[in-house]
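User: For a reading group we're discussing how well predicted structures match intuition. Take FBX21 protein. Before you show the prediction, I'll give you the sequence so everyone sees exactly what went in.
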Amino acid sequence: MPHINAAAALQICMLLSVLPAQYFISQWYGTGSAQRIQITERLILASWSSFTKSCLSLDVWVDRLNLWLSKTRNWYYGEKKTKIGDKEAETHSYFAESTHVRSPKPEYIQFSVGQVIVHKRFGYAGVIVGWDVKAKAPEEWLQHKYPPAKQDLKDTPHYRILINKANGFGKSTAYIPEEEITIIMGLEVVHHPDLKAYFSGYDGSKYIMQPWMKKIYPHD
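Assistant: Thanks. Here is the predicted 3D structure of FBX21 protein, as structure tokens, for the group to look at:
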């Protein structure tokens, strides 16, 4: 069986397409042989020109390749930026606001989310809504909060507190080390506009975490 290369196969396809093309032309443009031949030639040339421009042109294939590479780059860097953005967001989730799951809970964390506290020095009441195993805050804040004599406190557990509005303390939240708070049992004394976002109720000893919060602090 003789070998047919790509060029020969293309010529055969074009010849085979002439017959249906001639039939179409004879139906719509008359039956004169000279007219049919002329229109057929024009049709073949137009088809060939369109085919070469769309399939055989090097510029077209270069453009298609560049488009594909562009989409691939956009996808890759888009995924990379998303991961970096997530990592940066986690890195800069300060003041016990990170959604990182606190599990397992270290034994040296004395208090739990939902417990009511009193600040030993300032006397305001509040409820714990988060904790970090050590202070997690911007470096400028830490330097202001802890002078050289208190640097060791940065490495102790810290708690985020919703401050009881009735105390008139002037701030609605606080981020304080463990040594500055003590627990009050059995007193539902916290009034705060964000309380229901964190808790669904009070069970007589502590506030009950909302489901989303329980996932972050499963052992509290």
